[in-house]
Amino acid sequence: MDKFWLKSYPKGVPENVDITQYSSVGALMEEAFTKFASRPAYECMGKTLSFSQVDKMSQQLGAYFQSLGFVRGDRIAIMMPNVLQYPIALAAVMRAGFIVVNVNPLYTPRELEHQLNDSGAKAIVILENFAATLAAVIDKTPCKTVVMAKMGDLLGALKGSLVNLVVKHLKKMVPAYSLPKRVSVIEFNEALNKGSSHQLIRAQLSHNDVAILQYTGGTTGISKGAMLLHKTLIANLLSSEAWMQPGLHKKGKIEQPTFVCALPMYHVFALVSCVLLAMRTGGFNILIPNPRDIPGVVKTLQGKSFNIFPAVNTLFNALANNEEFKKLDFSGLRISNGGGMQVQEAVAKAWLKVTGCPIVEGYGLTESCSGVTCNPTDSDTYTGTIGLPMPGVEILILDDAEKPVPLGERGEIAIRGDSIMAGYWNRPDETVKAMTADGFFKSGDIGIMDERGYITIVDRKKDMVLVSGFNVYPNEVEGVIVMHPGVLECAVIGVPDAHTGEAVKAFVVKKDPTLTVEELKKFCDEQLTGYKKPKYIEFRDELPKTNVGKILRRELREAELKKSNNSQQV
Hints:
By secondary structure, the protein is of the alpha/beta class. The chain contains 16 helices and 25 strands. It has a seven-stranded mixed beta sheet. The chain has a five-stranded mixed beta sheet with strand order 12-13-14-15-16. A four-stranded mixed beta sheet has the order 2-1-11-10. A hairpin with a 5-residue loop joins strand 19 and strand 20. The radius of gyration is 23 Å and the shape is globular. The model has no long low-confidence stretch (mean pLDDT 94).
């Protein structure tokens, strides 16, 4: 196909990347552990681990699992926030030849049960804080081995004991739990100790072996496991590395990039943009266990210089409006990578004013193993687009008949390349529905591509609101509302309406407590055509979000629909 967007590429960025240089993600890790052995790799809660320490501990944990009789291809779940044990467990599972099942630690018992059963995970590495959720369902799953981690495991004997005491008994962050006797439970440090008496047998994996089962967030239905192959991760990683070079070194070469890892590492965005990218480049990750604790994030970053900051719009917004954050040192910041949800112009402007570093917005999905488009990282302005297709990626904008639409017209974004999943785990029916006959993944997102190759997201198909036959795209309305200086954030959905079929409703979190519905409606009157204006505005203290920070319009829609049904019954 004609990759006309290559003419818009920054200087030095290649059309494709060579994925044959690594046979597996494990091979990439082995290279990093040897090449960067003495460098610091991760910092969390004041403790730093070097590449060589992560190497040693991941070998021990991998050998422990092998000693239990697990074989190549067995699934092992990891259910932890951004703590030091996560990258160790990730490397252990991959190097030993098993498949990682990433689990959101904030899952409900129902969600966890589904994922453990669907994946067939035989073991789980979990932080004790979330063990009560596991205890509620483990008897109904094939999981028989639990490696139990605690916040203080790797912080040293004295500090670790103190942290564990505070977390469990003072802050009450570990709900009571009782795991059944049929389950083998071992503490994380004890698993490392037992593994040290065994030799890790490094798995000889190929590009087409499954590396990770990355479950969709469930915002569009039943959570499905996207099969990310080793070549999938390698392709996305190398593409991301090539894309970041112009921005990272635009003010002089940086030998060891420092990443702020506030995005959860179990999510593909952080998995590629922080964990694997740092492996490839010998980078250093500052881990943020709880990005919702904004004062805690600021405290962690005080006195530090950092170069790469991937985040979602809600986190950029919260930090840019925090007075203490504004006092940090941003002299080293080269790339602020936005993704996961649309970056709003008002937020981008606020972030640039505070940090001096523009947000470079990109786009990707679980099924595409993170980013497949991005704005050039040496950009100095907000473009309002999701950028260009990245190296090795082909993108078409398709109509409902799966035919390409003319440039400038709306259609579904379809993606092809090595960074696309192999399919959904045990769901060939869903895989077929998601792919075109010639191998393009249908994203479900509506976009427009211009003559330069830049793509603008309009919205998701199912989020579109139909008002008297007119299409209203929530992202557009949200983008207008947050331009009001009294608004912190908002979400827009369609609600049932007797006259127009659907009406636009906005849920708004105030920045200015004196803001009124009338004032905000008047503002919208000036910015939006009639059918796009919110008919209803509801103020809220907060909006429902995923752990990544995406606003869950689905939850708002379901609540409104339930309310509507109840009123009809009365």
